[in-house]
Every structure is written in structure tokens, then in C-alpha cells.
Amino acid sequence: MKRLARPTDFGEERDFGEDRRILVKIGFYTSTFNDRPLEEVVDFAASARFDAIEIDVGGHIKTPDRVEAAVALARSRDLFVSSITYFGNQLDADRAKRTALRERTTEFAGAIGQAGVPIFVIFPGRDDTASDEANYDDFADFANGLITETEPYGLTVAIENWPGPKDNFIGTTPKGWQELFQRIENPRFGLEFDPSHLIRIGVDPYRAMEAVKDRIAILHAKDTAIDRESLQAVGYHGKGWWQYKLPGLGLIDWPRFLRQARGAGFDGTLSIEHEDGAYGWPGKDLAARKDGERLGLDYLRNVLSGL
Q1: Which terminus has fewer CB within 10 Å in the chain: N or C?
Q2: What pTM did the predictor assign?
Q3: pLDDT, mean over the chain
Q4: 96 C-beta neighbours (distance < 10 Å), count
């Protein structure tokens, strides 16, 4: 895996033996607090002793000209800005919407690179009117151009493997990743690897990670629980049989998962994406949401301390 952290980055350095020192950073994705101003969010992150933060464009930045100030605010609280994430279907079937989104995406990439943030996360999406091959070719052309334009900054462009609202986004399965990597060879294109999505679509996250270990830029720390009785009642196409959970409250074996990541050389950021309905998500009790973030932080630190 590509090393994104440097000795000057904020985080906690731990000695794992064999003369290997890995800078371990734990942060969270700010979308959980999109109803709160960024200053309040970074104050909470600092007071809770997080190392890093992943900032959501839609909730906390809005426009490219506000990137620099948002990053400076986080850094003023001694938080490492691991990444900035921008939602949107880069393959929107509406050509005008696609063009507008890509123009804005390119503007954000430049601003993020200039601010010294190492990773820009986007979503490929899908054009339902086009073939799979056309979708992969089109997104790869855009991504390759984006990587070329941001070469002076060394920015890594990553996609999260969220399958999208219709569970059909491209590039969200092992086969889909290989389709993209064959078309986008530059190592500055990678993954925000989220095992929770793989659990609910029936993909083994451990096998999946092993196959793409050199392309993982950042890890989303989120879990998934499955209610087997509900699944039996409604089937895979039904609703209510799975739920996103905080790390340690679902099916993922986090000691195994993080040991595997460490063994592959991952030394980036674990970014908690809190979407656990038992802890105030979405946009409900604020204290419960904060409790959930703290719970995830404590759990992950305990796991890492035992590796």
C-alpha cells in the first residue's frame, strides 16, 4: 500500500517490532455531523483525542474556495486532515449534470491539492443508459485526466466502494476494481476501502483487501450487522435485514482485518464512518452521535494496541 503519512503528520506512533514503526491515525468522517458547523465538529474531534478528520464537502465545505480555510481550521486543532470527500454521480446520465459535476470536481481537486491534503475521495456512480464497458471507460478517462492535472500536488484520487442508492455503482466489487485498475494504472488512483459495504453484498472483505492491498489509500472503519431471521423472511432484495454499525458491533473481525492491513504495510488513516442508528444516526441525538464516535475510537485503539 502506498505510504501517505509522513513523520510530521499528526497521529500516534506505535512500535510493532521487527524494526517497523507504523504511524497509526484514527479519525472520523464529518458527515455524521453535517447539521453542525465545522468549528464545533473539529473542537469535538480534538477534545475526544482523535488524530485525524475526513471532511465532507457537502456538509462542511460547499465550494472550492472554502477548502483552505476548512483545512486550516482542522489543523489549528492539531488534527491531520486525512481526506476530503465529495459525493456525486460522476457518470450521471444527464450530460449537463455530469459536465457540471466534473468541472466542480476538478476545481475541488486543485484546491485540495494546494491545501496539502493527501486524498480526494469521489464516487464513480453509473449511467444506467450505457453498458458496463462504456461506464468504466468513461470514468477512467475522467480519473486519468484528474490524476494528470493534480500531479504537481501528488494528490491521491480515491473512490469509496459504496454501491450507491440503487446498489449498482461501478467499481465497488473486486471485479469492478480490477476493471478500473486496468484502465487507471497510476498508483495515485486508489480506494477508500470500506468493509461494511462488502459484508452486505456478500463479498469476503479479507479476500477482497488482499487482492487490492497496494491500492488502498484510506480505510473506512464501519461495520455491518445482519439479522438472519429478517433475511430469511424478506430475502436479499428485501429491507431491514442489515444495518450499518460502529466498529466492533457487527460481523467484521477487526483484529484480523487490521492485522491483515498492517501486514500489507498500511500506515494511513482509519476513518470512522458513523452510520449506526443505535447511536443517534442520522441527525438525531447529538450526544448519542458523539458517544458513538468515542466508542469507535476506544474500540479501535484497543484493537491496535493488541496487534
Answers
A1: C
A2: 0.92
A3: 93
A4: 8
The single residue listed with the C-alpha cell 447511536 is: 279
Q: Which residue has the cell 503519512?
A: 5
CA–CA distance, 280 with 52 (Å, rounded to integer): 22
Residue 174 contacts residue 213 (beta carbons within 8 Å): no
Give 227's DSSP letter. Answer: -
Residues with Cβ within 8 Å of residue 63, at least 6 apart in sequence: none
DSSP 182-210: HH---TTEEEEE-HHHHHHHT--HHHHHH
Do residues 299 and 253 make contact, with C-beta atoms less than 8 angstroms apart? no
pLDDT exceeding 90 applies to what percent of the chain?
Answer: 92
The number of helix segments (H) and strand segments (E) in the chain equals 11, 11
Interval 53-104: pLDDT, tens: 999 999 999 999 999 999 999 999 999 999 999 999 999 999 999 999 999 9
Nearest C-alpha neighbor of 102 from the set 144, 131, 134: 144
Q: How far apart are CA 78 and CA 42, in angstroms?
A: 10
- Fold observed for domain 12-305: TIM Barrel (3.20.20)
State how far the alpha carbon of 238 is from the alpha carbons of 28, 109, 241, 257, in Å: 30, 38, 7, 28
Amino acid at 115: A
- Helix, strand and coil percent figures for the chain, each rounded to 5: 45, 20, 35
Pair 32, 293: CB distance under 8 Å: yes
Q: What is the pLDDT of residue 298?
A: 97
Map out the domains of the chain as residue ranges. 12-305
- 3-class DSSP state of 300: helix
Distance from C-alpha of 307 to C-alpha of 91, rounded to nearest angstrom: 41
Contact in structure between 157 and 146 (CB atoms under 8 Å)? yes
